[in-house]
């Protein structure tokens, strides 16, 4: 489990979810922008099942839960399939 947790945290950091916040211009920023647009301007909270909030919380605290793991898998799949708005798409 420790190896999985470290790998998951590394993946979160690579896509832009960090201990100090979401990195500007990263995949995480694009996912957050897409989530905000889809939700009328706000990002769904972790308590309400928000994937972006859960991923950022995990990166900030170093705590990986089953929910966060599932969120990461879904987010990575969406990002890999190009189902997010990149900065170059001018989606704002």
Automatic annotation (TrEMBL):
Gene3D superfamilies: 6.10.110.10
Signal peptide range: 1-16
GO terms for biological process, alphabetical: intrinsic apoptotic signaling pathway; release of cytochrome c from mitochondria
Keyword terms, alphabetized: Membrane, Signal, Transmembrane, Transmembrane helix
Location(s), subcellular: Membrane
A single GO cellular-component term on record: mitochondrial membrane
One Pfam short name: Ifi-6-16
Keyword Membrane: yes
Keyword flag Repeat: no
Primary location class: membrane
Membrane topology recorded in Swiss-Prot or TrEMBL: Multi-pass membrane protein
Domain of life: Eukaryota
Similarity remark: Belongs to the IFI6/IFI27 family.
Matches recorded under PANTHER family: INTERFERON ALPHA-INDUCIBLE PROTEIN 27 (PTHR16932), INTERFERON, ALPHA-INDUCIBLE PROTEIN 27-LIKE 2 (PTHR16932:SF18)
Protein name: Interferon alpha-inducible protein 6
